[in-house]
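Deliverable D2.4 — example input (structure tokens):
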């Protein structure tokens, strides 16, 4: 014979366990995301930008590089970006397609190590805001 109160307690206990595991997972992901960005060296990031990114994003990072006219959509105006450093790390590492953006933005994760990506993000944070800049 079924004991309703005991069975209900078991159901509540299982549900509470699922909720707590979900909360713990969300906290872990948030903490991991916050630690995703290493301290960067903007000077070294500038060197990386000028050797890897200028062709599309241009000298002033406005999306006006020599190759920009070849792409639709055009490369992003990085001086207008309001994205978080964590987002920038992810898009540099995994590329535009993986982030739901332009598939023409390459993934640099196989060519740049985590410190170089952090340096690049540090450099991007130094750019003067030019949200209305035109090519």
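Example output (designed residues):
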């Amino acid at each position: 014979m079924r004991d309703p109160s005991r069975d209900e307690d078991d159901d509540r206990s299982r549900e509470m366990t699922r909720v707590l595991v979900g909360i713990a997972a969300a906290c872990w992901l948030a903490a991991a995301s916050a630690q995703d960005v290493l301290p960067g060296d903007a000077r070294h990031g500038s060197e990386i930008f000028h050797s890897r990114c200028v062709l599309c994003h241009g000298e002033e990072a406005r999306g006006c590089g020599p190759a920009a006219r070849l792409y639709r959509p055009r490369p992003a105006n990085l001086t207008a970006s309001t994205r978080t450093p964590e987002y920038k790390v992810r898009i540099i590492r995994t590329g535009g397609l993986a982030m739901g953006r332009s598939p023409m933005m390459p993934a640099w994760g196989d060519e740049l190590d985590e410190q170089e990506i952090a340096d690049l993000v540090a450099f991007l944070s130094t750019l003067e805001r030019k949200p209305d800049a035109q090519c």
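The CA atoms of residues 38 and 83 lie 16 Å apart.
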